[in-house]
Amino acid sequence: MLSHVVDGQRHYGALRFPQNYVAGGNYPVMVLCHGGLAGVLSDETDNLFSLFPGQCIEDEAFILIPSFRGEDLITPFAGTFSSGGNTSWADRDVDDTRALLSAALQAYPEMDEARIAAYGISRGGAVALLLSIRDSRIRRVIDIFGFTDLSLPSVRARVDGIQNFGDTPMGIGRVTWESCVQPWLVGAFTLEQARLAWIRRSPCYFAEDVPPIQAHHGLSDTQVDSSHTTALLGALAQAGFTSPDVEGFFYPGGMHGLSSLPGHGDRVEPFLCALQLGPRGYCGPMRPNSNGRYAGATFSGSCSISRNDFVFRAVGCPPSSVGLVFASNTIGYTPSGAGYICVGPGLQRLGVGLIDAQGQFSLPVNLRTLDPNLSGLFGVGGNINLQVVYRDSANIWGPYNFSNGLTFTVEP
Questions:
Q1: Which residues, other chains included, contact 223 with Cβ-Cβ below 8 Å and sequence gap of 6+?
Q2: Which of 52, 82, 109, 238 has the fewest Cβ atoms surrounding its Cβ within 10 A?
Q3: pTM (whole model) above 0.85
Q4: Confidence check: pLDDT of 376 > 90
């Protein structure tokens, strides 16, 4: 169990360790965003694993299960934990999840900052999508019949039934009614505020920021109409995304339940396990810095020379300091300062940058460099290993410290 504070309220989450966990190792992370409007069980993973054909996720990945504000997290081993605050379907759920993820990454440096995926069901599908849009740490997302646009005709029909025919607000109708429509009708929201409230909960409007995604929806779903996934796939296509970065699967006869989507686990698990193929952390964890945090290596952009948009990043560094990045085609593990030099023989100084007030460091990496000392590192198919070293004069272990290493393969 993990607890953290967000917006002044105490929140809770559950963390399942990999079956093959070894202290000091390095493991990917899957954030499991639950469906429904009535809280979450810590053993949600049992149902998930029963649908996966292999054990890649069960054996090798941390699984982080957030509760959302105003909800209970129920565990069979430690009782029930109630997260504070008022419910904010899909929207502030993302804030809660981001805060929990940050807390978990600092508490357990074996969680690889560079390999994080989000998996969401129904309401959680919307949360997973919005999380991936608002947080660049999310590399892949699985959307299981999540809602994507609260202005679709199927949603408007639900709201019409609530407003004009006295239907009980339930499911997606309740989300839209309580979050957007009712506050406008009673004067708590202006029309502009109501419009922004449903846009913030509608991932379709931000499709250009979605990472590689796999979406699943049943064509007989009467709770969240399959038009939501159709609209999302259309928005992604308009933004220029194609296979294999976007995959959509529809299931004839599929309803609003995992068991009605036959074979979807056979598609989901390999997609998530492909996190192993991209940039990944290695060599760590280091000792914490003088602020008690672990500096985690991560990235943004792609590994492609043609796109040339790769940015090496690190989080959890001492604020307002300076970082120096080294690169090598080889790896190492040499004690130094308060940590270890993770790049091996042939290392080159790649560049220097400032660490901001939040402890975040970033350095754009020019994969097309003409510098003769560096150009040999960045050939297509070459393995690159990066690490940042930073001053940490108050650390009892040494006056400087390191992030863990980040390794990736250069692509065309």
A1: 122, 145, 171, 172, 256
A2: 238
A3: yes
A4: no
